[in-house]
Amino acid sequence: MEIRxxxxxxxxxxxxxxxxxxxxxxxxxxxxxxxxxxxxTRFVVDFAKLDYISSAGLRVLLxxxxxxxPRGGVALFANVPGNVREVFEVTGFxxxxxxxxxxxxxxxxx
Length: 110
Fold this sequence. Notes:
The protein is of the alpha/beta class and 110 residues long. The protein has five helices and five strands.
C-alpha cells in the first residue's frame, strides 16, 4: 500500500493506493493518527487507486471517524472504485461513510 498526503487548503487529502488490509491497515492508521496528533481534523481520503479493502481496512476507517468526531472533525471519501464501493454497500459502510465522486466534490462538501 502507498499513502500520499497533500494539504489542500480546506482539508488534508490522503490518497491510498494498493490494498488496505490486515497487513497495511496499521500503516494507514499510524499515518492518519500522526496527522490528527498534529491537529488535522478535516480529511478527504482518495481511494482512486485502491484495489482492495478488507475488514481490517474497514475497521481503521471506523476508528478514524470515531477519533475525529469529538474533535469536530470529518473524513470524506472520494473516487471509491466499484469493487471497494461494493464492499462498503454489502457491509453497510456505504450508509455510514460520506462518499463523493471526486476529491473536488468532497472538498466542496466541506
